[in-house]
Amino acid sequence: MAVNVGKTAALLTGRQRNIPTQLHLRGQDVEWKSCIRYLSVHIDRSLHMIPQMDNQRRRLQAQQNMVLRMIAETGCYVNNDVIARELRVQTIEDFVRTQAQRLFDSANEDPMPSLYI
User: Fold this and answer.
1) Cβ atoms of residues 52 and 41 within 8 Å
2) Structural contact between residues 33 and 48, judged by C-beta atoms closer than 8 angstroms
3) Residues paired with residue 63 on neighbouring β-strands, in sequence order
4) Which pLDDT score is estimated for 106?
5) Which of 35, 67, 104, 105 could form a disulfide with 44, with the two C-beta atoms 3.0–4.6 Å apart?
6) What's the rounded Cα separation, in Å, for the pair 106 and 95?
7) What are the tens digits of pLDDT across the range 19-34?
8) β-pairing, 28-33 with 9-11?
């Protein structure tokens, strides 16, 4: 197996604040990072999916902005938020927030006995 030391990074997980001594692999230093990308998934030191979700949200928002720009047939001089406001389209973040609030509200209104075992 071949290992590219230049692409190798070390990730310290957990609550440790002290970074251990420098790691060496084949005579080269391995860089310590707080967030790495492995198989297109962003992993941070707490092993949460927050960096991954932020990245996906930004990518979806960029796709939405491109489609809205094509629909409105505007040039690059018009801001994305102006186009979305004129077309009355929610941003991805606002849409997800609205849907989550609806879901939580409906769960509070109609208690399911199976959830309260």
Assistant:
1) yes
2) no
3) none
4) 78
5) 35
6) 17
7) 677 887 888 888 788 7
8) parallel
Query: Cβ–Cβ contacts within 10 Å for residue 61, how many?
Result: 15
pTM for the full model?
0.59
Q: Token pair of 18, please?
A: 């002290």
Per the prediction, the chain carries an average pLDDT of 81
CA dihedral in degrees (106, 109, 110, 111; nearest 10)?
110
DSSP class of residue 73 equals T
CA 60, 65, 68, 69 torsion: positive or negative? Answer: negative
Contact (CB, 8 A) for 93 and 65: no
Calculate the alpha carbon distances from 35 to 17, 23, 95 in Å.
15, 17, 27
Domain ranges of the chain: 55-108
Count how many residues are written for the chain. 117
**16-74 pLDDT per residue, tens:** 677 677 887 888 888 788 778 778 777 877 777 788 888 889 999 999 999 999 999 98
